Design the sequence.
């Protein structure tokens, strides 16, 4: 994968750095680019952006690239980067922060399926207080299918349905599919936490 | 003795077998697992990725419930639930303002007293004390597991006490050896299977899993053993797809650690639900005359 040249934005650099440091609780200034994180990153080869490079983007103030790059979306939260960092920087906390910032600024996710999955997970959890696999997967698949259909990708929808149906059938055979709805009795308490997370919006 | 228990959503659904096995094995060791009442989802990685407040607040509600039981320890078999709960407890111990804000919404407030343990933390000392050996009825001879820890048992997004070696954990090997199995030495024991990427970024997840499976095979393992329901599900359910795409010689069953202990304890394999795996997990046990 080719590496993009980063832009230095003298004006925005300080603001972006402050914002990411405050929200993630990580001291990005401690990074001396040793790239131990890069060596351990399991998705670095595919994203072309490794944690060290992400930190560099932020330090240089390249806001556009920092908020919208493949590492932010494809990071699997394995926490290898942070564990190996000699300066105790948890880059995974930085990708989490950037993802939330990107959502707040209504940027189009580079990997909509990943964004939709996490949103579906949180929606299902907020609904019942527990994550019901059928409900969560249902919300996710419906959303994904709708997006693909809007783009006219009927083939992609059929492929996805076939794949999921195949997995579902095997799960049924192995008695790994669960149909009983699992829920919290005191849902009000869970919903109150959701409200506190996003004032003005219900769960 | 009694121990508080948080199964989490997986153990109530696709990994119900793990829930059943945990209860059987722990009971035989004299530990009664008390499922904490009305627990909620820990938020898993989705909360961490999308909402900093909920990532702490969701496990916090469970911690409040757990503290209210008055028990001193809670065991959480799922690595993701364990990690999120431990991280929440740690964060609340140093962010009193956040703790107050979350507690304001909760009937049972977080005190922060209960010790949050993963499953190996509870089992390992019982190998040392001889309790597990005492209950074992047969030796797991011929079983060569690749002990697969995945990410969240030893790596955390903040400073918490880590209960095993971060790069080369040994908890499962210690248990397996004490039961007569011969765990293989291999390089991918703490590598990531992709977790939910198997659903939303399948190509990536299959690639990650192919590395794990190929190394286990090359090292002469005849099965995997794990403690994490998501690792178990991925490596088990997607093994055939990985084999088709990347080429694998053999299919290796993926056991939960509780299955191996249970088999050694002489429990019935079907009662323990060993027949609910994607890659056949009964055949190897029969072949080795363990069942």
Sequence:
């Amino acid at each position: 994968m080719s590496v993009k040249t980063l832009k230095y934005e003298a004006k925005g650099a300080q603001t972006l750095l402050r914002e990411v440091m405050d929200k993630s609780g990580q001291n990005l200034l401690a990074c001396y680019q040793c790239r131990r994180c890069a060596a351990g990153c399991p998705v670095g080869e595919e994203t072309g952006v490794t944690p060290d490079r992400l930190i560099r983007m932020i330090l240089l103030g390249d806001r556009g690239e920092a908020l919208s790059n493949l590492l932010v979306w494809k990071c699997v939260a394995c926490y290898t980067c942070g564990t190996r960092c000699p300066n105790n920087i948890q880059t995974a906390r930085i990708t989490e922060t950037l993802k939330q910032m990107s959502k707040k600024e209504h940027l189009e996710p580079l990997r909509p399926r990943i964004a939709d999955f996490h949103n579906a997970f949180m929606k299902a959890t907020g609904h019942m207080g527990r994550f019901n696999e059928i409900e969560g997967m249902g919300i996710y698949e419906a959303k994904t299918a709708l997006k693909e259909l809007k783009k006219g990708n009927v083939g992609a929808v059929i492929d996805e349905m076939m794949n999921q149906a195949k997995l579902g059938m095997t799960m049924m055979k192995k008695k790994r599919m669960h149909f009983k709805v699992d829920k919290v009795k005191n849902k009000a308490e869970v919903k109150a936490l959701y409200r506190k997370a996003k004032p003005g919006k219900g769960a | 003795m009694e121990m508080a228990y948080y199964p989490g959503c997986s153990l109530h659904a696709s990994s119900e077998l793990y829930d059943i096995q945990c209860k059987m094995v722990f009971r035989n060791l004299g530990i009664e697992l008390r499922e904490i009442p009305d627990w909620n989802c820990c938020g898993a990685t989705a909360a961490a990725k999308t909402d900093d407040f909920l990532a702490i607040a969701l496990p916090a509600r469970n911690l409040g419930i757990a503290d209210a039981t008055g028990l001193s320890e809670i065991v959480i078999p799922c690595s993701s639930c364990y990690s999120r709960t431990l991280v929440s407890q740690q964060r609340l111990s140093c962010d009193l303002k956040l703790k107050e804000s979350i507690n304001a919404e909760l009937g049972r407030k977080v005190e922060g007293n209960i010790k949050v343990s993963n499953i190996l933390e509870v089992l390992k000392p019982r190998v040392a004390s001889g309790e597990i050996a005492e209950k074992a009825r047969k030796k797991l001879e011929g079983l060569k597991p690749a002990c697969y820890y995945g990410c969240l048992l030893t790596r955390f997004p903040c400073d918490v006490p880590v209960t095993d070696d971060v790069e080369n954990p040994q908890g499962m090997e210690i248990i397996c050896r004490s039961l007569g199995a011969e765990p293989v030495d291999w390089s991918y024991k703490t590598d990531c299977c992709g977790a939910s990427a198997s659903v939303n970024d399948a190509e990536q997840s299959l690639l990650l899993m192919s590395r794990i499976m190929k190394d286990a095979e090359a090292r002469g393992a005849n099965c995997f053993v794990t403690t994490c329901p998501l690792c178990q599900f991925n490596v088990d359910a997607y093994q055939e797809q990985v084999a088709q795409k990347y080429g694998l010689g053999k299919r290796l069953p993926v056991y939960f650690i509780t299955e191996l202990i249970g088999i050694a304890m002489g429990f019935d394999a079907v009662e323990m639900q060993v027949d609910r795996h994607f890659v056949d997990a009964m055949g190897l046990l029969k072949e080795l005359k363990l069942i």
Notes: The CA atoms of residues 243 and 249 of chain B lie 8 Å apart.
